[in-house]
Design goal:
By secondary structure, this protein is of the alpha/beta class. The chain contains 8 helices and 7 strands; from the N terminus they run E-H-E-H-E-H-E-H-E-H-E-H-H-E-H. The chain has a 7-stranded mixed beta sheet with strand order 3-2-1-4-6-5-7, with helices on both faces. Helix 1 links the parallel strand 1 and strand 2. Helix 5 packs parallel to helix 8 and helix 7 runs parallel beside helix 8. The longest helix has 18 residues. The radius of gyration is 17 Å and the shape is globular. About 3% of the residues have low confidence.
């Protein structure tokens, strides 16, 4: 670990992109957890057409500097929210933080460590389904299936393609020319990074899975879409 992380008073090193849809129960807690990180960062919030008080909470927390908030009048999907956030990001490096409590911002230092030390350009936080709260059996099996498909199609070896923690330079993220609307965003990012010959460095993270009753939005259909996205992008070339 580096002796000293980038100062919180300097220009932000990390832009934390937070897409949200109807997350009034958790969005405030997530913002607090992100801001508690010792990493030099900014928070870019995007409300994707919420019908609850998510947008009002975002507005109340935005200070126009370290925390900024943007809104879609209509729901466009997670991919659309990330594209909006990327347009406003100012950090050297970007990270996607879901607006729930599944991923822990306390893991930020270990995620950016390989980048700071020059050992990696792109870092994934792998859940590896070890240090976690209880999962659905079929959720784990679905994740392993799409990860296996990624490894076979792209001749790589990842342990967790669907992880929400994908960290990379902002210019790399912008160069992906992202098109996904929904949860097919994760396979799109991975497929395009691999097609651009990036070697993905994985570090272990903690994970607390939500149940469907607690707001988990992924379904089996998203797994099928992920496989389709992986297959379609096997011949993608960057502009």
């Amino acid at each position: 670990m580096p002796d000293e992380l980038p100062s919180a008073d300097a220009s932000p090193f990390l832009s934390v992109l937070v897409p949200a849809l109807d997350e009034e129960r958790t969005i405030g807690t997530v913002i607090d957890a992100v801001l508690a990180s010792p990493v030099s960062l900014e928070v870019v919030l995007v409300d994707d057409g919420s019908t609850d008080s998510t947008w009002e909470i975002m507005q109340s927390r935005a200070d126009g500097h370290r925390v900024r908030a943007f809104r879609h009048e209509r729901n466009g999907g997670k991919g659309a929210a990330i594209r909006t956030a990327l347009q406003h990001a100012r950090g050297q490096v970007v990270l996607i933080q879901d607006a729930d409590l599944e991923y822990d911002p306390a893991d930020y230092p270990k995620l950016i460590e390989p980048i700071l030390e020059g050992r990696a350009t792109v870092v994934y936080g792998t859940r590896a389904f070890t240090s976690h709260a209880a999962f659905s059996f079929w959720y784990v099996m679905g994740n392993r299936l799409v990860t296996l498909a990624t490894n076979v199609m792209y001749n790589c070896y990842l342990s967790d393609m669907e992880t929400g923690y994908k960290v990379m330079p902002r210019e790399v993220a912008l160069g992906l020319d992202l098109r996904a609307r929904g949860f097919e965003l994760e396979p799109e990012i991975t497929a395009k990074l691999l097609r651009m010959r990036h070697r993905i460095y994985e570090v272990p993270i903690s994970y607390a899975a939500r149940s469907r009753e607690e707001g988990k939005k992924l379904t089996a259909k998203d797994g099928v879409r992920a496989l389709g996205t992986l297959a379609r992008l096997r011949t993608w070339t960057p502009r």
